[in-house]
């Protein structure tokens, strides 16, 4: 072999070796980036809540519409089906699911209601009819009929809507807003219509 051919072959091997090292380095960096992204990503858990027929998902800090609707229905049924015998149990059952931002006010109101239910021997029964999620406000509305019966009195019924906002904290649901009223859901569309009607009344002549 001529020395010139040997040197060309040697230089070619060196260049090839350099290219391979650079390629390996790039692939290693890409693999490291993929592993880091996988470790840092939020795990998504798929589930089918018993209160709804559709599939739902939940991550560390967020959940699907179906997941939030399922929990809203749970809260409505817990709070809407109350007797003097189970009110304390229900209060303790949902206490750990209440956000610290509303915990004190919520528990104070629930304690007052528990006292009234025991004194008047009230039995409350809620039959849900619809569950509506509003993406604009992240609120869930559970509407149905509320039946109330006091001791030795006839049962009465009325429309009842439970309004909730539920967020996820470490994969667990947390109730951050609750309201209830004897009307249809106070969606943004409903509230806008109410404001428009009020403006029309104000503009109309005496």
Secondary-structure element string:
HEEHHHEEEEH
How many beta strands in the DSSP annotation?
6
Shape verdict? elongated
- Number of helical segments with 4 or more residues: 5
**What proportion strand?**
25-35%
Helix content: 40-55%
Verbal overview:
- The chain has 206 residues and is of the alpha+beta class.
- The protein contains five helices and six strands.
- The chain has a four-stranded antiparallel beta sheet, covered by helices on one side. The protein has a two-stranded antiparallel ribbon with strand order 1-2.
- A hairpin with a 4-residue loop joins β3 and β4.
- The longest helix has 38 residues.
What's this model, at a glance?
With 206 residues, the protein is an alpha+beta fold. Helices cover 47% and strands 26% of the residues.
């Amino acid at each position: 072999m001529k020395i010139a051919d040997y040197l060309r072959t040697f230089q070619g091997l060196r260049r090839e070796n350099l290219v391979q090292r650079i390629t390996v380095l790039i692939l290693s960096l890409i693999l490291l980036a993929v592993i880091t992204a996988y470790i840092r990503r939020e795990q998504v858990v798929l589930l089918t809540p018993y209160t709804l027929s559709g599939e739902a998902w939940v991550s560390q800090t967020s959940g699907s519409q179906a997941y939030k609707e399922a929990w809203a229905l749970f809260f409505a049924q817990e709070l809407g089906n109350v007797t003097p015998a189970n009110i304390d149990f229900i209060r303790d059952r949902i206490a750990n699911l209440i956000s610290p931002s509303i915990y004190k006010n919520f528990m104070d109101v629930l304690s007052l209601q528990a006292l009234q239910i025991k004194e008047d021997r009230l039995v409350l029964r809620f039959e849900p009819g619809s569950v509506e999620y509003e993406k604009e406000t992240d609120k869930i509305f559970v509407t149905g009929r509320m039946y109330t019966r006091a001791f030795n009195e006839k049962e009465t019924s009325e429309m009842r809507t439970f309004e909730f906002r539920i967020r996820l904290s470490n994969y667990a649901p947390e109730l951050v807003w609750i309201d209830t009223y004897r009307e249809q859901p106070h969606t943004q569309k409903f509230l806008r219509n109410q404001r428009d009607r009020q403006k029309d009344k104000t503009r109309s002549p005496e």
